[in-house]
Amino acid sequence: MGYRHPERDQIRIEDVLSALGNPIRLSVIRVLDAGGEHNCTSVLGILGVTSKSTMTHHWRVLRESGVVWQQPSGRENLVTLRRDDLDARYPGLLDAVLAAARTDEAA
Amino acid sequence: MGYRHPERDQIRIEDVLSALGNPIRLSVIRVLDAGGEHNCTSVLGILGVTSKSTMTHHWRVLRESGVVWQQPSGRENLVTLRRDDLDARYPGLLDAVLAAARTDEAA
């Protein structure tokens, strides 16, 4: 039994913006966007986040806003950025957000 | 003595996304983007918001994230969308967010 996710047409921009409006969650999106297959633990490792309970909250926010798919796979949860859905529903939004994160980082 | 606002290069994308990731604050931005001169009271009237204390919080979030200018003018506060700053720092972001809000509304 997997997690509940909103369908593409159930996604709401307020939820997406609120989900992305957090440094850890924004970092997660950048890791996922860079490609490769990730599970929750591997993303935590890349980000150097050690609090699993804090991340449980962040994963739920990202999942329930429609930003990521989170799917059980064996003893792990695979996570994937829902780029197709976000690009289809909100053209240009994700790219603008990712570019903005790079701008801040370079500042 | 006016309010404190971040300079353009002090704006951070997490703060902007978090500020916009709320239905009332997103509605405020849409009103301001539609043009015309607005003070806090006139925006409240357009949105049908009656709780002034709630709005005080929202104005602070919008101001401190760098999304709006809020400037005392007589007994009122003029509010202006910082489109120039946001477009310069994060090209395409504000337009993508406003388009997304229209998409949701049409759904």
UniProtKB/TrEMBL annotation, chains A, B:
It comes from the Bacteria. SMART domains: HTH_ARSR. Residues 5-101 form the HTH arsR-type domain. PROSITE patterns: HTH_ARSR_2. GO terms for molecular function: DNA-binding transcription factor activity. SUPFAM superfamilies: Winged helix' DNA-binding domain. Transmembrane segments: none annotated. This is Helix-turn-helix transcriptional regulator. CDD domains: HTH_ARSR. It comes from Actinomadura rudentiformis.
